[in-house]
Write a structure and sequence with these properties.
Elements lengths: L3 H4 L1 H4 L3 E6 L1 H4 L9 H16 L3 E6 L2 H9 L12 H25 L4 E6 L1 H5 L1 H16 L3 E6 L13 H12 L3 E6 L4 E2 L11 E2 L1 E2 L4 H7 L10 H14 L3 E6 L5 H7 L5 E4 L9 H7 L6 E5 L1 H8 L9 E6 L6 E5 L5 E6 L4 H7 L7 H5 L13 E3 L2
Parallel strand pairs: 1-2, 1-5, 2-4, 3-4, 5-9, 8-10, 11-13
Antiparallel strand pairs: 6-7, 9-10, 11-12, 13-14, 14-15
This protein binds glutamic acid (GLU).
């Protein structure tokens, strides 16, 4: 399947969909106002999708953009130049307007929504991740649309998603969604930056996202956006690796969502899911970690063993870094320094360090007890291709 139009059927047939809307779309012409006209049309599109039996989760940006006016932040100040405390305060004001805009528009279509504000640290703790998943599933079971944003008033620097592209994918992984739709100000991936290069060609279908595509996307962050193409590529990579399709389309026109589903001619880039479909939620959670707590470097023999479906034994581990506890997700690094996967460590950093290069039968004498013969069990591990 190399034709973008034909391949869009995987999105059109999706049952559980996460739709992300960028700040530029949500905000109205005047600073501090909501684009009610667009949101009304969007609510009608969501209603039509739900009437056709689909479940929809909405991730909307706009909290910070809509709070700018109250905080006296100028229209043209790029997000990266706004001090964190001001962004947090702006989102406290603006998030109300975001939710209010969607709530009223959806209500006019006979739909109900519930606000869920998420922080990255919650999604990286297994227990909190499960709690958040239960909340979202319960809302969906009751026909209520989860309306999600990052909890920007309390999320700080290091532990922020920062952009809702990756947050949307994390949410999709959490609930086992089939597809993520990014309604953006761009209609997808180009061979080069189309703003600077008129020869740049649009790519409608990306069967497997590779390094060359990531290079094409570049680092540029357009205008007032937080993430730009870079965060969209990160999001697409994470989604497709975990068996979720991701599509980027220009969402600015009214009924952009409906057009994507009904006409197939709406310009878009589709990133096709890998792994032959969805992978188990637990593995998805492991593989999608953005901030692993540490790493274990392994030798050649261990790398081969892992690719033959074996667990990682202490004898194959050469080096341990970071500060992690038993149960934390860490990176697995091969002898050339390349990350080849992620897994849940059965030992904390200190103990892992002590048993490195040692035979499993010596663990008890080294540590005084043995919790597990493996450093990372194969069921607790996700390898990259
Ligand atoms: N969470 C941010 C907000 O609501 C938006 C992040 C993004 O632009 O992706 O303002």
């Amino acid at each position: 399947m190399s034709n973008g139009k034909a391949s869009l059927s995987v999105i059109q047939n999706a049952k559980l969909i996460v739709v992300k809307i960028g700040s530029v779309i949500v905000r109205g012409k005047e600073l501090g106002t909501v684009n009610h006209h667009w949101i009304d049309a969007f609510a009608q599109d969501v209603k039509a999708l739900m009437d056709s039996g689909k479940k929809v989760v909405v991730v909307s940006s706009g909290g910070i953009a809509l709070g700018r006016k109250a905080l006296g932040i100028k229209e043209n100040t790029p997000p990266q130049n706004i001090p964190l405390a001001q962004k947090q305060a702006a989102s406290a004001v603006g998030q109300y307007h975001v939710f209010d805009g969607y709530y009223k528009a959806l209500a006019r279509c006979g739909l109900e929504c519930g606000q869920v504000l998420i922080t990255m640290s919650e999604t990286e703790s297994r227990r909190m991740n499960l709690n958040a998943r239960d909340t979202l599933s319960t809302l969906l079971e009751h026909g209520i649309i989860p309306l999600i944003n990052e909890n920007d008033t309390i999320s700080t620097g290091e532990i922020r998603f920062g952009d809702n592209d990756r947050l949307s994918v994390r949410v999709a992984q959490m609930i086992g969604a089939d597809a993520v739709i990014l309604l953006s100000t761009t209609d997808g991936l180009y061979t080069d930056n189309p703003d600077n290069n008129p020869q740049a060609q649009h790519i409608p279908y990306i069967e497997k996202l590779e390094e060359k595509h990531i290079k094409m996307a570049g680092e540029a962050v357009p205008g007032l956006s937080t993430g730009g193409m870079k965060s969209k590529m990160d999001a697409a990579l994470s989604a497709t690796k975990t068996g979720i399709h991701l599509v980027i389309t220009d969402g600015r026109e009214d009924h952009a969502l409906e057009k994507l589903f009904s006409t197939s001619s709406k310009r878009h880039s589709l990133f096709y899911a890998q792994n032959g479909g969805k992978i188990a939620a637990r593995k998805m959670w492991i593989g999608s970690h953005m901030r692993p707590k540490g790493s274990i470097t392994i030798d050649e023999g261990a790398r081969d063993a892992l690719y033959h479906g074996k667990s990682l034994l202490p004898i194959g581990a050469c080096k341990v870094t970071g500060d992690f506890n038993r149960g934390d997700v860490i990176e697995i690094i091969d002898p050339s320094g390349k990350r080849i996967g992620m897994g849940i460590s059965a030992y904390n950093m200190r103990d892992a360090h002590l048993i490195c290069r040692r035979n499993s039968k010596d663990i008890a004498s080294i540590l005084g007890e043995i919790t597990s013969e493996e450093l990372i069990h194969r069921n607790d591990m996700v390898l990259e291709d």
